[in-house]
Write a sequence for this structure.
């Protein structure tokens, strides 16, 4: 996918032919071009982390393997200058109309933290320009990457229809409401589906940038992670606080309240559905639509959440905690916690 520049390109004339080929007497230098979209109000930390990781990777590639292609990063935007949430002002290198000239186009977070603010941001003039430019990209030649609320902008194009993706865990229900045909995976930090790469909340931009570097060279990505002391975080599950998930379905709200009050009791989905005055099938369908989990899966997450809280705030033994979260013995709870750690 890397673009290439011949001898006539002044930006690369004086470089050694790293990752290059020769056509006749002309040295060809292959360059991985990454375009980072920035609009007013986008997260400053998102922009800064992606820039730093990509530029460190380009600076360090010679130490890892001189055959690794050079990496070029440029800022794309709807205007000449943009200001981030951190009041960082960026000069835009290329207009959005030139997005198709890049191997990868990255859409960072919009700078919003709630469903309402995200919906409003998507209607802004700048966001609509970004969405339109993304819709014109040829996925055969340009990879699209996005993180956090930036994933919403990509979903607006319709490119995620029946494809896997992730986004900010706390906006998962709103995302599913807006884009019900997307196979949303809120557990995974970075999801790759063909030429589409998505990442989770806020600082998952770091994981997204490393994923892009890893697509160039796994060894380079590992080297950059060591240089910048970046720990591997393959899942969002460890960060999810389910009481903060945004959903408005009254049956799901009742279900959550009902099971939270009875976490120490055995769980039977048919009994709970009957207690709530609905059918098992309806309950399962509504919970899946709102939370992207089965009722049992959600209850297990609540039990893990409660168990971890009790472990951190009390002197109860594992066996005592197990009883308080609905398990007859400590080993059942330990098994569930081990499985959750493997996923995260």
């Amino acid at each position: 996918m890397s673009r290439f520049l011949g001898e006539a390109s002044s930006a690369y004339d004086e470089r050694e032919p790293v990752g290059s080929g020769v056509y006749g007497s002309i040295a060809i230098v292959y360059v991985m071009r990454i375009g980072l979209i920035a609009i007013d109000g986008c997260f400053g930390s998102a922009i800064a982390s992606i820039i730093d990781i990509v530029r460190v990777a380009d600076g360090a590639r010679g130490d890892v393997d001189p055959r690794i292609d050079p990496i070029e990063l440029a800022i794309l935007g709807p205007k000449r200058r943009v200001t981030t949430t951190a009041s960082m002002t960026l000069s835009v290198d290329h207009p959005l109309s030139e997005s198709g000239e890049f191997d990868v186009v990255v859409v960072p977070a919009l700078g919003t933290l709630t469903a309402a603010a995200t919906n409003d941001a998507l209607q802004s003039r700048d966001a609509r320009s970004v969405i339109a430019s993304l819709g014109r990209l040829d996925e055969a030649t340009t990879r699209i990457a996005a993180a956090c609320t930036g994933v919403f902008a990509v979903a607006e194009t319709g490119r995620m229809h029946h494809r896997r993706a992730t986004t900010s865990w706390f906006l998962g229900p709103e995302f599913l409401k807006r884009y019900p045909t997307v196979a949303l995976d809120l557990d995974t930090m970075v999801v790759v589906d063909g030429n589409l790469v998505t990442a989770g909340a806020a600082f998952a931009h770091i994981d997204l940038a490393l994923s892009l570097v890893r697509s160039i060279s796994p060894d380079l990505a590992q080297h950059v992670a060591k240089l910048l002391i970046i720990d591997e975080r393959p899942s969002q599950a460890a960060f999810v606080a389910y009481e903060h998930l945004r959903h408005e379905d009254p049956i799901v709200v009742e279900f959550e309240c009902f099971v939270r009050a009875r976490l120490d009791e055995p769980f039977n989905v048919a009994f709970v559905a009957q207690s709530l005055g609905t059918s098992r099938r309806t309950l399962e369908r509504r919970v899946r639509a709102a939370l992207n989990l089965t009722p049992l899966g959600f209850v297990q997450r609540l039990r893990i959440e409660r168990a971890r809280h009790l472990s951190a705030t009390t002197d109860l033994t594992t066996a005592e905690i197990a009883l308080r979260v609905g398990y007859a013995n400590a080993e059942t709870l330990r098994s569930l916690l081990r499985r959750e750690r493997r996923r995260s």
